[in-house]
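Subject line: Sequence and fold of a protein, written as structure tokens
Body of memo: The sequence and its backbone structure tokens, given next.
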Amino acid sequence: MGSPAKADTTGKTDNTDHEDFNTQHRGGVFFEQLGIDLFPHAHLGFALAPGHRSETLNTDEEGFRLSASPHGPVDSVSWVADGGGGLLLGSSVAFGLGATSDSTTLASHLAALTGSGG
């Protein structure tokens, strides 16, 4: 994935690895329009920018998309703290690519149908 970050002559650390990775793995026009970057993740390969906030898409501190449930917003920390629950795996559809908000994703709809918090 490129070379380690290098210090320039001013002593600043460049972010070459992140920039190279982000350029190669951009989420297409959708992520570019939302101004969201992808970051390397130890277990997933890549993740969205942690803590992203917008009207359309929000991520928790691990870069996972927030979901809506009858019990309030669900992030990775609250999901684990509440004992887990349903887990939706997949790619763009499971993520909610193109959804108009976190509450309109497949995961949020399933939570509403089942009355679950996760």
Notes: The first helix runs from residue 16 to 24. DSSP finds five helices and two strands in the chain. The mean pLDDT is 77.
